[in-house]
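Readers of this paper often ask what the protein records in our data store actually look like. An entry from our holdings is shown next, in its original layout:
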Amino acid sequence: MEELKNKNTEYLRSIGIEVPGHLPRIEDLHEVNPRTAQDIAGRLCALAYVIGLGFDAKGTDLLEHLTKYDLMSYVSGYENEQLNHDIIEDQDKINMSWLTECAQALAWCIGLADLNHFKHCDDDLAHKIPFKTDPNEFIQKATLLPISEIQEQSDLLYRMHWYARNCGLIGQECELSEGIISERRKAIDWAYGVEEDWDEIPLDT
């Protein structure tokens, strides 16, 4: 884990992002419970609907499809609450729209997309995820990238998140979007198994 930390710190330095060498290591494999490819694919399919709340889709319509395709077990508690509200508050709507970046990260975990943390999610990401059609085959056939790659991303995003947040604290111009980085970190840390409950994933820096 120390080698991974040093590797990512050096990589970030090489692209002009300075992070302190004293930042801690992330959790080792024996401290986490990584998700299966099926967990990740199912969550990705559920997100395809939940994200709609950020773009004025009706929760009742989304719930109908989530239930029809047995995806409710992949919906977080907070998301379930929002799906059942008649009116979505502005901040909650923003939160739902940012889930597109979580979807990009989860799609990467199962080999459907690349990860470029300097730009927003792919324009064609939605077309890679089953929507209003049975996702069972998609979920069952999903395959996971090597856990070492997901671990490496978890470590990298932690350090990027520290940098982006620190830039905000000291008023420094930042090459990274804290929104993109924090959402992708949340998704990757969930996939890596840092925390079972999506709504409780710590994003400390």
